[in-house]
Automatic annotation (TrEMBL):
PANTHER family named in the record: IZUMO SPERM-EGG FUSION PROTEIN 4
InterPro entries: IZUMO, Izumo_fusion
Signal peptide feature range: 1-17
Pfam families assigned: IZUMO
Family as reported in the entry's similarity comment: Belongs to the Izumo family.
Entry's Gene Ontology cellular component terms: nucleus
Record has Signal as a keyword: yes
Record protein name field: IZUMO family member 4
Keywords: Signal
Amino acid sequence: MALLLCLVGMTAALAHGCLHCHSNFSEKFSFYRHHVNLKSWWLGDIPVSGALLTDWSDDTVKELHLTIPAEITWEKLDQVARAVYQRMDQLYQGKMYFPGYFPNELRNIFREQVQLLQNAIIESRIDCQRHCGIFQYETISCSNCTNSHVVCFGYNCESSEQWKSAVQGLLNYINNWHKQDTSMSLVSPAFRCLESRRLDNLTLEDAVECFKKH
């Protein structure tokens, strides 16, 4: 279990989409779009396939369906992008396909890409629980390709001393955050279950219950 605290370090918006944020996306998909007319015996496949490729980024964002922000690490984005490019390159190596085959294969690759992105985004959040206390990792936003970093709280503490230190670190982080922006809703008087004077008696279950309520 991990508590997402904040998202900071935003930069200027560049584009929309997940794969669109990858450095090779423009070159790769420009090639795919310009060579789509050579991939099917049936002329009807060409506009359908072209539309799939043109709307790839926007459709990706629509299909993610995540309850957490769509933010992915650069490493995982690169892994997904390489997997997608490999599948696309293999598809384009073939000669002309029979009617309907090429756009169907594009849809299959698109769905596989969405699943890969979903898994990568969720795995990044789950990885937080392998740490004890405040942890930060660099990400890129799939909605606008901005650089950011996610700060989360991991519960994987091996001793009561580590747990006390982790909670104290959380309190310090919240206090510093509150000083920077007093409008942040996470900082609430109701977080008295995490006050320093009660750390000795604070258990993991207590903290989790506190976070759930607020």
